[in-house]
Fold each of these.
Amino acid sequence: MKRRGLIGTMFLLLACVPLWSEDFITKMEYAKMLYSNPRGIGCNKCHGEKGEGTIISQYTLKGKTVTLEAPNITNVSKERFFHALTTQHKVMPTYFLTWQEIDSLFYYVSSEVKK
């Protein structure tokens, strides 16, 4: 009987170990993962690996070259960043992100510029 109690206590203690351990991934790792694939198409595909902005496409319209560019997002305010991700745009898809996800994305792009 005592052995069952000891085994039960050990099992309970081992089950609680994950509660005291480090997070599985860091905040930056989570943010980078989210930036690369928030809902199918990553932010990095248009805004670059660190949010620096890129040329998405160039085409000719009526004899003139038209360039479609994704802006640098490393230096925008948090308010503008949140607004951009919660409103519809002509080119950028709507991702339906949570506030926590948007905050993580902002953390990533605003932190990466300092590296």
Amino acid sequence: MLHHDKILDAEKEVKVIRWYTGDTKSGRNYTMKWIAEKLGVSYSTIQRTLQRHNIVTRGKGRPPMRMDGMRRCSLCGETYKLSRFARDATKPFGRAYYCKGCNMVKGSSSVVDDYHET
């Protein structure tokens, strides 16, 4: 390990993981560059931290890929298995952004709530 690389403390590691995977109230994913600037550490430190936690880092502008076969629905915010998302070759993950339930009703919140209760 080079002398300029830092090992983050546990609290900062949690922030890095949450910011990068979108596990925040807003659900927004932040880039490794933004996280590095915010925490005052190098880009490679952020990258290695994510890799230590088995989070696959991807190219610029591509969302993080979870290793547990789960994905968060962009509409309802719930996390489901990948099988709950329609296949879509035009998307970075090869799956739709919305779960199948939300995709069926797109925007009718009462119907979305009813679908997810079952």
